[in-house]
Specification:
The chain is of the alpha+beta class. Helix content is 35%, strand content 19%. The structure holds zinc ion (2 copies). Pfam families: SprT-like (PF10263), Zn_ribbon_SprT (PF17283).
Amino acid sequence: MTDQELQTLVEKVSQESFRQPFCHNARFNQRLKTTGGRYHLQSHDLDFNRLVFEKYGTAELIKVIKHELCHYHLHLAGRGYQHKDLEFKQLLKKTGGSRFAPLLAPVVFQVYQCQQCQKMVKRRRKIDTKKYVCGGCQGKLKFLKTIEA
Ligand SMILES: [Zn+2]
Ligand SMILES: [Zn+2]
């Protein structure tokens, strides 16, 4: 998705979900690491994290766009535009925006393998291989690697 396509999408979402035009600039900003989007109070422009689109797709990106447009339209209208404001919470709910930016940190798994039946076991947390055995054959587990998913 290009910046121009993003701009068009933000304008469309603004018109359809807020019944108001988006008259500023939307672009992807590579410096956003852990948040999905950002509203600039001074320029009224919106930045978005390309990873939201790449990892979660258009539907999730639209939710983040709605979240940022809630800040945008409320701020321009002189209403409560911050996360703690009731008007913000209500508009977010009404338009279906994401409450928080999606968690962009990768999910880490620990991978173990049964020494007897060779079955792979994936766990979010490290396990004590002296205590825990293979669920299938009660064989000994051995730590293989850490993976990101
Ligand atoms: Zn926000
Ligand atoms: Zn086993």
